[in-house]
Design brief:
Layout lengths: L6 E8 L5 E9 L13 H16 L8 E6 L1 H4 L12 E5 L7 H12 L3 E6 L15 E5 L5 H10 L6 E5 L4 H10 L3 E3 L16 H14 L4 H9 L2 H11 L13 H21 L9 H17 L6 H13 L2 H5 L3 H5 L6 H9 L5 H11 L3 H10 L4 H18 L2
Parallel strand pairs: 2-3, 3-4, 4-5, 5-6, 6-7, 7-8
Antiparallel strand pairs: 1-2, 1-8
Helix pairs in contact: 6-7, 6-9, 7-9, 8-9, 9-11, 10-11, 10-15, 10-17, 11-14, 15-16
Length: 405
């Protein structure tokens, strides 16, 4: 890897209702890096950091999400840090950052400028730290304690006006426990782990979407598709609202269902139904899971630019979004695929991460999980450099935020 390359990763931070309120951004100089910044890579990582967040400033950061940025002691003192938008930036001090008078003074200065400060607590209380008065957030690594100890740690900070974040939450049981304890924010990829549950009942809205997807897959007559929409008033409304939206770029208003279906076309309709698949009905996915799924779909699609035509990239989008349907519907992927007709290449990617689409899905998943060695291996096998991967990652995040989901 060239010395000026660095990869970006991100992890969602949610409130107890699983609504994403922030993302922690990670910047790795190499596959071997275990902290956000190596001393000898400060310039490269700072460049990626500033360029990336500056790009996001015109898009994603205009929304209501915060950006948690891992900061080393050297970077904390860098003037380049002050190029980041203060109101939306949380500077998360790495555990090796000292609580020296110089660091305390710098944190106080940055807070006056509008930046937020987060401290990490991994095995030792921060109540006596000189930095405690600078903190807006405290992160507790729940894997460093038993759950009873986590609860006691949480209570220690309740007298302070500080938001406490549960970090490294990896399973549903841990999430439920942290929610019960009262954590303000919860961070981790517990919702992205593949688990097998008792099959969730697919309600009529899901069933209607599945039926329409299957109709399009077998090139059904448009009148049959229209009748499928007519059987579900909510679907018809959503379609008309979507196609009349400013983002669709039409100069005339679409008023009839047949007109809408003609304008949108089968390929775009299939793509839209794929999105709707995880947002329809009472059994829609949790907001965090939903956003991760759609972001993965967009990232998988963008990574395939230069390799596939429009139809192929549409398939990549479907691959990415559908790759989490086993979690959403709480059933094994094999059973999910029994319910919807998909091309063999898409099924191969979903089941085995193989075939023409599999490596792109695998790379998108590696980006989500900050699996740096796998990112490098997959990116190199696809002849993608770090700038391309980073651009695709940020573009996918911005695109999903713009959807307003």
């Amino acid at each position: 890897m060239r010395q000026d390359q660095a990869y970006i990763g991100r992890q969602p931070i949610m409130n107890p209702n699983q609504e994403i309120v922030a993302y922690e951004l990670f910047f790795r100089h190499s596959a071997e890096a275990t902290t956000a910044i190596y001393e000898n890579s400060l310039q490269a990582c700072t460049r990626v950091l500033v360029n990336t967040v500056s790009d996001m400033g015109a898009q994603w950061l205009l929304g209501d999400k915060m950006a948690f940025i891992n900061v080393s002691e050297e970077m904390l003192h860098s003037e380049l840090l002050e190029l980041l938008p203060p109101a939306k930036t949380v500077l998360e001090l790495e555990t090796l950052v000292s609580a020296s008078p110089e660091v305390v003074e710098r944190c106080q200065f940055l807070r006056k400028r509008g930046y937020h400060i987060a401290l990490k607590e991994k095995g030792e209380s921060l109540l006596s730290s000189p930095l405690i008065d600078c903190a807006d957030y405290i992160k507790i690594d729940i894997l460093a304690y038993t759950l009873d100890e986590v609860a006691r740690r949480f209570l220690e900070y309740q007298s302070l006006t500080i938001k406490v974040v549960a970090e490294r939450v990896e399973h549903h049981e841990q999430y439920d426990a942290c929610k019960k304890i009262g954590f303000h924010l919860i961070q981790g990829f517990y919702f992205a782990h593949t688990e097998t549950f008792t099959a969730k009942v697919i309600n009529p809205a899901f069933a209607a979407v599945l039926d329409l997807l299957n109709m399009i897959s077998r090139d059904a007559d448009m009148r049959e598709v229209e009748n499928g929409f007519k059987r579900d008033a909510a679907l018809s409304f959503k379609l008309l609202r979507y196609i009349n939206s400013v983002g669709f770029g039409l100069s005339c208003e679409i008023q009839s269902l047949r007109h809408a279906l003609t304008i949108i076309g089968t390929k775009q309709l299939y793509r839209w139904l794929t999105l709707l698949m995880i947002t329809a009905g009472e059994n829609s996915a949790a907001p965090a899971l939903m956003k991760t799924s759609i972001t993965r779909g967009r990232l998988t699609e963008l990574l395939g630019e230069g390799y596939f035509d429009k139809a192929g990239r549409d398939n990549l989008f479907v691959v990415g979004v559908f790759s989490m349907l086993d979690l959403m519907l709480e059933m094994p992927m094999e059973r999910v695929l029994e319910k919807v007709d998909l091309p063999e290449a898409i099924q191969d990617a979903l089941l085995h991460r193989k075939g023409v689409y599999g490596p792109f899905l695998a790379l998108a998943e590696a980006c989500e999980n900050q699996d740096n060695s796998r990112i490098v291996t997959l990116a190199e096998s696809l002849q993608l450099d770090s700038n391309k991967v980073n651009d695709c990652h940020i573009a996918s995040l911005s695109w999903v935020e713009a959807l307003g989901i």
